[in-house]
Amino acid sequence: MLTKRRKGQVLVVAALAIALTILTTQAYVYELNNMKISSEHGLLSDYILGIKQESRHVVTASLVNVSHGGAASNFEANLERWEVFVAGGYSLGRCDLNATLASSTTYSDGIRLDWGANGSGVSSACADFALNLGGRGVEVDWGFTVNMTSRVEVSGSYDDLGDDSKQVSVSVNLENEGASALAGTIVLEYLKSGSWEDPKNLGSYAKLDSGNGTYRYTFIDTIPGTFVRVRVRVNDLRGVFVETETSLPSG
Known about the structure:
Elements: H1 2-32, H2 41-67, H3 73-88, E1 94-101, E2 111-115, E3 120-135, E4 138-162, E5 165-176, E6 179-180, E7 183-192, E8 195-197, E9 206-209, E10 214-222, E11 228-236, E12 241-248
Antiparallel strand pairs: 1-3, 2-3, 3-4, 4-5, 5-6, 5-10, 7-8, 7-11, 9-10, 11-12
């Protein structure tokens, strides 16, 4: 877990650095053109949309950190750093960005890590943002929500071949913000006699990547019992970790 935490911390620092660099460039371009702001509202629009985009990067980087074992409080700390940077990088008046962490039955301090045993796992970070710009004839009051969610769904079944021998089929589906997403890494394991086993060690193991966020696995092994317990641990392409497990019935 320590290795995962360090990896998450490196990723969050890198993502924050990228966000700050991009927004600094946008702020510089906007400042160079401030004399024409009345006729070139596109520059201001680009700057505002840039803040939203980089806010997404900060939320995503924080989720990567927390999902790999970082403290949930890191999310709020990163948002506070981002707010300070945005305010300090705007020299044409007032620029206030305020983030409020999502708080509900499913979120705690803006974070939801629901890695249940029902075949569905969720890693999510959510915050509401309020942006206020003022000065030199510009008044902007705009709110937006950033919700970055990685979800994995696992299902399947097995065919009984006799004498506890089972042919197992597993389907894994990955989503980012409700849309199909690709995995960076997937670790599939099954429970046998009280220990988690890697099916890749079996000669019968096969994997099919559909290229659309759906992955299918098959393998054969002698597994006692009337169910096959499987577990998946996933890192999506942006580095967010999510896991879940479930029991597969006889097909």
